[in-house]
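FAQ

Q: What does a record look like?
A: Structure on top, sequence underneath. For example:
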């Protein structure tokens, strides 16, 4: 079982950047596909980005393509989400998640979750 702890959230202005980190503990971090989701007020939890355990394939929801970048450092057991050109609509609690599937873009496909970190973008 893997445990996940997010950090790096905060209050920024539109156009600014933030980098979220998710530190994992547990066996064989490199065997897990990792994803970032977000939950905004009044909305359902939304897939943002994912990176596979094999070949480090990455995939994004359309609204963040070109602005967000997901990456992982298996030596540090950490996954990152670099967020650039932030918009007010990016305001949400961001969650890190893990799965043993090679490709996963839905909530149901992820088995382990962090506690979330708040990102607030003021316009």
């Amino acid at each position: 079982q893997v445990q996940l702890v997010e950090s790096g959230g905060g209050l920024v202005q539109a156009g600014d950047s933030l980098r979220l980190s998710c530190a994992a503990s547990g066996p064989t971090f490199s065997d897990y596909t990792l994803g970032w989701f977000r939950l905004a007020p009044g909305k359902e939890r939304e897939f943002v980005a994912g990176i596979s355990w094999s070949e480090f394939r990455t995939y994004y929801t359309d609204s963040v393509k070109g602005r967000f970048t997901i990456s992982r450092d298996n030596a540090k057991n950490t996954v990152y989400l670099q967020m650039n050109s932030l918009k007010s609509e990016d305001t949400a609690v961001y969650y890190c998640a893990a799965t043993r599937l090679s490709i996963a873009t839905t909530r149901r496909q992820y088995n382990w979750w962090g506690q979330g970190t708040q990102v607030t973008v003021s316009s």
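Q: Is there anything notable about this one?
A: The first strand starts at residue 3 and ends at 7.
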